[in-house]
Amino acid sequence: MALTKATYAMINGDVINILDYGASPSASGATNRAAIQAAIDAAIASATTRAVYIPRGKFEIDAGLTFNSPIRVFGDGYDISAETGSIIETTQSTGVAFEFNNASGSFDNGLILDDFMILGPDSGSAVGFQIEGAVWPNSEIRGLAAVNMGSHGFNFVDCISANVENCRAQGNGGSGYVVSQSNALRFRGCTAESNGSHGWNFTSNGIPGERVAPSLVQCLSEENVGDAVYINQYTGIMISECYLQVASLSNVDHACVRIDNSSAIRVINNHITSNVAWP
Length: 279
Known about the structure:
Elements: H1 8-12, E1 16-17, H2 29-45, E2 51-54, E3 57-61, E4 65-67, E5 72-75, E6 78-79, E7 84-90, E8 96-103, E9 112-114, E10 117-119, E11 127-133, E12 139-142, E13 145-147, E14 154-157, E15 160-165, E16 168-170, E17 177-180, E18 183-188, E19 191-193, E20 200-203, E21 211-212, E22 215-217, E23 220-224, E24 229-232, E25 234-235, E26 238-240, E27 243-246, E28 257-260, E29 266-268, E30 271-272, E31 276-277
Parallel strand pairs: 1-2, 2-5, 3-7, 4-8, 5-9, 7-10, 8-11, 9-12, 10-13, 11-14, 12-15, 13-16, 14-17, 15-18, 16-19, 17-20, 18-22, 19-23, 20-24, 21-25, 22-26, 23-27, 24-28, 26-29, 27-30, 28-31
Antiparallel strand pairs: 6-7
């Protein structure tokens, strides 16, 4: 076979490149969505190739991508202000742009997502990333960005023990990060900026104190419309070495850290520009 381009898949077979499945910065949203989904499905079906590569370029999709097996999906990084790098640009107004949903069973390797951006239409009610179901202890969510989504940037639902590092949620219509009914998610070096609701929203949606011990370390939450961090029905959250700021120091309806129906919350060695609201 004559090779017209050198890609990860063509070089060593270890990684599936979305270009090899028909994705292109010049293709339509429907074509790119089908191509990227096909690449993800191929990685899931493969016994050896469990990684999907998103090269530099802006790939428009018109509907969400979804999968339920813990593979790796990665890009080459991005520049938010220039809108360059590995970018999936969604035009959808509802749903979820990139969804890992309800994995079950036992896996040797965890979910790994790194170094690409979801760019939304700055309208509607769509979520950028949604991670739902069991996420295994060796899962890594790192270097992602959710920008200009109509609703939340990141939504973690019923997750178990994963590292979330150096992610960015910026300019989304809802909260930067929503964490519900999840245990032991470790956020480090993440940012939530200029979102339409809270920077982080931890809500158990169950018995007060039912969910335990997520942490925020060296994170930044600033210029969000709601609280920098909102906590409801959780036990044992630690917030340490973070920069927390509300959009307006005169806005008495919001706080840097607001805590409801929770216990054993530790707020340690942070830079806080306004009051901490205790229940």
